[in-house]
Task: inverse folding
C-alpha cells in the first residue's frame, strides 16, 4: 500500500491529489474527467495490494494514473499497472 507522505513532492494527501490531478490534466482538457482520473488513481494506488512496489514512487504513481487514464478515456482496459 502506498502512503502519501512517502511521495517526495507531496507531504499530505491533498498535495498528492493535486499532483495526480496535474498529471491527469495532461490526458484531457475536461476538468471533470481529469478529477475522476486523479481520484481513481489515488484509490487504486492506496487500495491495490497487488501493485508491485517500486522504489521510485513517482514512477509507480504515474504508472497507476496512466492505466486509469487510458481506461477512463476508453483506450484500454485498466488491468494491473506495472
Result:
Amino acid at each position: 500500500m502506498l502512503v502519501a507522505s512517502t511521495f517526495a513532492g507531496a507531504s499530505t494527501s491533498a498535495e498528492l491529489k493535486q499532483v495526480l490531478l496535474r498529471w491527469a490534466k495532461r490526458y484531457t482538457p475536461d476538468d471533470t474527467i481529469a478529477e475522476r482520473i486523479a481520484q481513481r488513481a489515488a484509490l487504486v494506488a492506496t487500495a491495490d495490494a497487488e501493485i508491485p512496489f517500486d522504489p521510485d514512487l513517482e514512477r509507480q504513481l504515474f504508472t497507476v494514473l496512466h492505466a486509469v487514464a487510458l481506461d477512463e478515456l476508453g483506450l484500454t482496459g485498466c488491468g494491473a499497472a506495472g
Notes: Residues 18-82 form one domain. The helical segments are 13-24, 31-47, 57-72.
